[in-house]
Specification:
By secondary structure, the chain is an all-alpha fold. It has 9 helices and no strands.
Length: 184
């Protein structure tokens, strides 16, 4: 496997140094994902922007977690599932939601289950989603805006999940207690 550098502010390309400052300000550290992405400043910049845009979406914290973790689990991302477990805890998302997402078991509400189902339809169909799936999503009280916000999250998570697969990004110390492996 190709070795990728885990950059810090000293080793990162100049265009990534301010972006790593953003990481430190947001997380109190440079997450391993950001350290790898720093090799390509445009990727790190786009990822940080999409991350914030999705946090600012019309979804609440539970729904944000459902969308992110659904994609992470579907993509079998060894790094993002534990990282987003920690993020969900910091957002005070119920552990039952997080565990259901990690273990691919039923979520506590039909609405959250519909959100996971729709997100999976988008990911698995690469955006080609049956109208019946769209209608089922809308009938659960979600909006056309949220259909497109799921696409926003998919774009963000493709960046991180694929980077982590390519770089085999090591898990950061704060997330090691949330280590995860996809059940076959």
């Amino acid at each position: 496997m190709t070795e990728f550098t885990l950059h810090d502010k000293q080793s990162a390309p100049e265009e990534s140094q301010k972006l790593l400052d953003n990481s430190i300000q947001a997380f109190g550290m440079v997450p391993g994902l950001h350290a790898v992405m720093a090799e390509a400043p445009g990727l790190l910049d786009a990822y940080q922007q999409l991350h914030q845009l999705f946090l600012d979406s019309s979804f609440n914290d539970e729904e944000v977690t459902v969308v992110w973790q659904t994609i992470n689990v579907e993509h079998a991302c060894h790094y993002c599932v534990p990282a987003h477990t920690g993020i969900a805890k910091s957002m005070r998302v119920d552990d039952a939601i997080t565990e259901a997402l990690r273990n691919e078991t039923p979520l506590p509400t039909a609405r959250l289950e519909a959100l996971r189902d729709f997100t999976l339809a988008v990911v698995r169909g690469r955006g080609n989603v049956d109208d019946s799936d769209v209608q089922a999503f809308l009938e659960m009280g979600f909006t056309k805006r949220q259909i497109l916000e799921v696409v926003l999250a998919v774009a963000q998570k493709v960046m991180s999940n694929y980077t982590n697969h390519l770089a085999d990004t090591p898990l950061d110390e704060p997330f090691k207690k949330f280590e995860w492996h996809k059940v076959s």
